[in-house]
UniProtKB/TrEMBL annotation, chain A:
Domain of life: Bacteria
Annotated Pfam families: ABC_tran
GO MF term set: lyase activity
Taxonomic lineage of the native organism: Bacteria, Pseudomonadati, Pseudomonadota, Alphaproteobacteria, Hyphomicrobiales
Name of the molecule in the record: Phosphonate C-P lyase system protein PhnK
PROSITE patterns, per the entry: ABC_TRANSPORTER_1 (PS00211), ABC_TRANSPORTER_2 (PS50893)
Gene3D superfamilies in UniProt: P-loop containing nucleotide triphosphate hydrolases
UniProt domain ABC transporter: residue ranges: 13-258
Function: Involved in beta-(1-->2)glucan export. Transmembrane domains (TMD) form a pore in the inner membrane and the ATP-binding domain (NBD) is responsible for energy generation.
Family: Belongs to the ABC transporter superfamily.
From TrEMBL, chain B:
Record GO terms (molecular function): lyase activity
Positions of the ABC transporter domain: 5-232
Designated name of the protein: Phosphonate C-P lyase system protein PhnL
Keywords, comma-separated and alphabetical: ATP-binding, Lyase, Nucleotide-binding
From TrEMBL, chain C:
Keyword entries, A-Z: 4Fe-4S, Iron, Iron-sulfur, Lyase, Metal-binding, S-adenosyl-L-methionine
Enzyme Commission no: 4.7.1.1
InterPro entries the UniProt entry points to: PhnJ
Reactions mediated catalytically: alpha-D-ribose 1-methylphosphonate 5-phosphate + AH2 + S-adenosyl-L-methionine = alpha-D-ribose 1,2-cyclic phosphate 5-phosphate + methane + 5'-deoxyadenosine + L-methionine + A + H(+)
Full protein name: Alpha-D-ribose 1-methylphosphonate 5-phosphate C-P lyase
One Pfam family this sequence matches: PhnJ
Cited function: Catalyzes the breakage of the C-P bond in alpha-D-ribose 1-methylphosphonate 5-phosphate (PRPn) forming alpha-D-ribose.
Keyword Lipoprotein set for record: no
The organism of origin for this protein: Bradyrhizobium aeschynomenes
Entry's family note: Belongs to the PhnJ family.
Length: 264, 232, 294
């Protein structure tokens, strides 16, 4: 568990007046926030609200039209993502960041064994001992509740929930400090979702991970996040503690969102 | 006497946008203080805003005005309108909340549900589990249930798990939202004992209790919430 | 002998210059795949169009050319390429590794040590070592640019996970000059150590894929591996049946329709040389050419 007093005095990621427009269409406007180590932020909103565009900008996959994103590197220096070289950005992506796609096929190598999927990041940062890589992969599989006996099976033989858990293991093996998740439970059965959410929740707690989770599912936001940002038409219309925003929503749109879900 | 909680002119109004934007004033001018080792019971009829006040103190509801100061890390800190980070930190270190209903976390065994606040506070898993087990036992949750997720328990059992979770932590301020509702006499007595022990330990408590007998046993003072009723 | 209808070595001078520029760049950046405007050659893709263009671009009138295919000087492919240059460039040809100044090869490096001044030209079908794991060319190029080679080890990991050892036995990836990971063309991994610190210049031409890459003389070439599963050269159980060599790469030859087989050197020049010097293998009953390629 993170010590919220000392470790988190300095922000991990800072977004300043971020915007993205395509011609006259503004997909995302004027988004500013600060994320501290160990904090889980949910970005909620309907399809087309700009939350995915925002996630792409935050994770340096899309260059913003306005504003900037800064990240505190492991050496403690806060740097603008736009100033990072491509090599540095990609290195971040392989080490200090994780990215969990909604569709595990996008985040996994489907034809390569689960062990190699988990081990790839380790090999990418220079691990050169097969035994150690395999052992680490195996312990991560168990951590995400995948039978270690299936380490040599390719993810295409896995169920949807297993694939998603494998994707999480693949991301967490380098002990990133920040994980981006794009609708991590989308497309899964309800029972599978519950298991996955519970797993993510405990991993985030144990590892002291910061996470930015894009979801349209308020139940996901409630279970996983400390804070929530509600987006509509490219803007952040309400933000605050997750239980505060969900139990005491202020904006008309948020009240509509909250009232349209079943009670937890 | 150490002042632990100081509520000054706190105000709350709900604006129901889905009902044509009507305003529902809940409370206004809420002002009271709670010292260490003191249990203050909020009184008033249903709908007077007792639960809302607890939720405002906990940061679950936002204040529209006024101050809610708690002694957090040794200093009086205003939580009304505070940054989420500060509120979260206060919940971790300073304020605990025992609600009537357990927000069940799927798949987590009862023992771990109860032990979690201690883990958060830095105890080892083993120690936390031992203490959690002791408290569950005291609240008459049979040991065979400890390894099961409480979502499968009866309503009364769930409530006792929740009470254990609320009382196990060492936070100096506890908010008790009907902790004894629907408990049998034996378990009610256990809760009354737990509250007495917390008082001994200098914990400041704000409680909502409907049971007159329990109120008599735990209340050092009563604050009448009807005086804060907001004019409609 | 030079047929008057062809320019020297078949290609026109402009094309040869273009290819030479690519070769120079490839030598300057060891292991890096340089794109070039590959020409149509009078042979099908897969028969060495890349190697032939490189050879054509570097060949001079005084060169002595040797062409081998799977180590052998006398297979169809080797003979026709040798004849092609004999006809279009009029250069002297040889089967001797020692005598040759330019050796074009498919799938082997000669057993006899190469020397300074020699050029070994490899025919390459697929130059991209990352291709089978990452099909996007844009992505593999970026990975080379940023030296992101974790994926290469994924392939080796898969081998060990599946077979208990690194089962990749040819086209075994190497790191050149501690920078670029390179596919040494489908040579057996047996030949990988010969590439390291080699006195001869090694050029690689991929005609269909339009890439040229190079290992300059005396460049470090390291086969990728894991510390607990180190690279090993292929080990044969028996010596060559014809010349008794214990240190050469062997081909399996089926000698009849009853399943009888023998193992002989794949490098025919080396094997003949040893036999001429009096070395004999256990089954050297028949002249090896009949046994091997009759």
């Amino acid at each position: 568990m993170v010590d919220m007093n000392s470790a988190s005095d300095q922000p991990l990621l800072v977004a300043e007046e971020l915007g993205k427009s395509y011609g006259r269409l503004a997909a995302c406007r004027d988004v500013s926030f600060v994320l501290y180590p160990g904090e889980v932020l949910a970005i909620v909103g309907e399809s087309g609200s700009g939350k995915s565009t925002l996630l792409q900008m935050l994770s340096a996959q899309l260059a913003p039209s306005a504003g900037r994103v800064s990240y505190r590197m492991r050496d403690g220096v806060l740097r603008s993502l736009a100033d990072l070289g491509e090599a540095e950005r990609r290195f971040l992506f392989r080490t200090d960041w994780g990215y969990v796609h909604q569709d595990p096929a996008q985040g996994l190598r489907m034809a390569v064994s689960a062990g190699a999927n988990v081990g790839e990041r380790l090999m990418a940062i220079g691990w050169n001992n097969y035994g150690r890589i395999r052992q680490t992969a195996s312990s991560w599989l168990q951590r995400v509740e995948i039978d270690a006996a299936r380490i040599d099976d390719a993810p295409r033989t896995y169920s949807g929930g297993m694939r998603q858990r494998l994707q999480i293991a693949r991301n967490l093996v380098t002990e990133p400090r920040l994980v981006f998740m794009d609708e991590p439970t989308g497309g899964l059965d309800v029972s599978v979702q519950a298991r996955l959410l519970d797993l993510m929740r405990s991993l985030v707690n144990e590892l002291g991970l910061a996470a930015i989770v894009v979801t349209h599912d308020l139940a996901v936001a409630r279970l996983l996040s400390h804070r929530v940002m509600v987006m509509k038409e490219g803007r952040v219309i309400e933000t605050g503690l997750t239980d505060q925003v969900l139990d005491d929503p202020r904006e008309p749109y948020t009240q509509l969102l909250v009232s349209s879900i079943l009670p937890p | 006497m150490t002042l632990m909680l100081d509520v000054e002119n706190a105000r709350k109004t709900f604006t129901m946008h889905l009902q044509g934007g009507i305003s529902l004033p809940v409370v206004r001018d809420v002002s009271f203080k709670v010292n260490a080792g003191e249990c203050v019971v909020l009184s008033g009829p249903s709908g007077a805003g007792k639960s809302s006040i607890l939720k405002m103190i906990f940061g679950n509801y936002r204040c529209d005005g006024g101050r809610i100061s708690v002694r957090h890390q040794g200093e009086m800190t205003n939580l009304a309108g505070a940054e989420p980070r500060l509120v979260l930190n206060a919940r971790r270190m300073t304020i605990g909340y025992v609600s009537q209903f357990l927000r069940a976390v799927p798949r987590v065994p009862a023992l771990d549900v109860v032990a979690e606040p201690l883990l958060t506070a830095g105890l080892s898993r083993e120690d936390a589990r031992v203490r959690a087990g002791a408290l569950l036992g005291r609240l008459n949750i049979p040991e065979r249930l400890w390894s099961l997720p409480p979502s499968t328990f009866s309503g009364g059992e769930q409530q006792r798990v929740n009470i254990a979770r609320g009382f196990i932590s060492n936070v100096p301020i506890l908010l008790l939202d009907e902790p004894t509702a629907s408990l049998d006499a034996a378990n009610r007595a256990v809760v009354v004992d737990l509250i007495a022990a917390k008082k001994q330990a200098g914990v400041a408590m704000i409680a909502i209790v409907h049971d007159d007998e329990v109120r008599m046993q735990i209340a050092d003072r009563t604050v009448d919430v009807t005086t804060f009723a907001a004019a409609a | 002998m030079n047929a008057p209808t062809y320019n020297f070595a078949y290609l026109d001078e402009q094309t040869k210059r273009m290819i030479r520029r690519a070769i120079l760049k490839a030598i300057a950046i060891p292991g890096y795949q340089v794109p070039f405007a590959s020409r149509e050659m009078p042979m099908p893709y897969g028969w060495g169009t890349g190697g032939v263009q490189v050879t054509a671009a570097i060949l001079g009138p005084h060169d002595v050319l040797k062409v081998i295919d799977q180590g052998s000087d006398d297979t169809t492919n080797a003979i026709s390429i040798r004849k092609f240059f004999a006809k279009t460039a009029g250069v002297e040809t040889t089967t001797s590794t020692e005598e040759a100044s330019v050796i074009q090869t498919r799938h082997r490096i000669p057993e006899a040590p190469l020397r300074e001044g020699q050029v070994l030209v490899f025919q390459v079908p697929i130059p991209e070592p990352l291709r089978f794991l990452e099909p996007r060319e844009t992505e593999t190029r970026r990975m080379h640019a940023l030296a992101e080679y974790g994926l290469m080890h994924v392939k080796l990991y898969e081998d060990i996970a599946r077979f208990g050892h690194i089962a990749t036995s040819y086209a075994y990836p190497v790191k050149v000059n501690a920078r670029y990971v390179m596919d040494p063309s489908p040579t057996p991994k047996f030949d990988n150590p010969k590439m390291d610190n080699c006195p001869a210049l090694q050029l690689f031409g991929a005609g269909r894929e339009k890439r040229i890459y190079a290992i300059p003389p005396y460049t470090s070439v390291v086969s990728l591996d894991f510390e607990d599963h180190p690279f090993t050269r292929y080990k044969f159980d028996a010596p060559c049946a014809l010349c008794g060599a214990e240190d050469s790469y062997l081909d399996e030859i089926v000698t009849d329709d009853k399943g009888s087989r023998m193992f002989v050197c794949s490098d025919t020049d080396y094997c003949e040389g040893r036999q001429a010097a009096g070395h004999r293998g256990v089954e050297n009953a028949a002249p090896h050419k009949e046994g091997a390629h009759g």
